[in-house]
Write a structure and sequence with these properties.
It is found in: Cytoplasm; Nucleus, Nucleolus. This protein has about 150 residues and is mainly α. It has 7 helices and no strands.
Length: about 150
C-alpha cells in the first residue's frame, strides 16, 4: 500500500478515512444497482403498502443526503440551503411510518377474552347455583305450557 500511496496528493492521516469512504461508495453503488435492476413499476406489486412507503422514503432520503454531500463538495453550506428542510420533512414521514409499524406490533386487547377472565376470577358459587335453579325452573315451566 505504501508504494501505491507514494504518488497521491493527500495526507497520510486521512488514508483510513478515504479507504472507508471508498468501500462505502462501493456498497452504495452495489445496492443501487440491485434496486435499479427491478423496473420501478414492478416494485409496488411485490411489496405491501407499508414496505413500499419505507422503500420510497429510504430512496428519497438517500438521494437528498447525496445532494447534501454534493453541496458540501461545492463549498455551499447545506444548512442554509432548502435541502435541510427537505431532509427534516422526510425524517418526519419516516417517524410516522415507524409509529405505524410499532402500532401493528403492539399487543391488542381481546375484550371477549378479558370479560371471560374476569367472570372466572370473580366466580361466586352461590350466584351460579341461583342461575342454574332459575334456568331449570324456566325449562320446567316451559315444558308445562307446551301442549303434547
Amino acid at each position: 500500500m505504501a508504494v501505491a500511496r507514494a504518488n497521491e496528493d493527500y495526507p497520510e492521516e486521512i488514508d483510513d478515512q478515504l479507504t472507508n469512504f471508498d468501500s462505502s461508495v462501493s456498497s452504495v453503488k452495489t445496492m443501487l444497482e440491485k434496486l435499479m435492476s427491478i423496473p420501478r413499476n414492478e416494485q409496488p406489486q411485490k411489496l405491501d403498502p407499508l414496505d413500499q412507503a419505507k422503500l420510497d422514503l429510504m430512496s428519497v432520503y438517500t438521494l437528498n443526503s447525496l445532494f447534501w454531500m454534493y453541496l458540501v463538495t461545492q463549498g455551499v453550506n447545506p444548512r442554509e440551503h432548502g435541502i435541510k428542510q427537505e431532509l427534516e420533512r422526510i425524517r418526519t414521514c419516516m417517524n410516522r411510518v415507524k409509529e405505524i409499524t410499532e402500532k401493528k406490533k403492539a399487543a391488542r386487547l381481546d375484550k371477549g377474552a378479558a370479560a371471560r377472565f374476569l367472570r372466572s376470577a370473580l366466580y361466586d358459587p352461590e350466584e351460579k347455583d341461583a342461575r342454574r335453579k332459575s334456568a331449570s325452573k324456566k325449562k320446567s315451566e316451559g315444558a308445562r305450557d307446551t301442549p303434547p
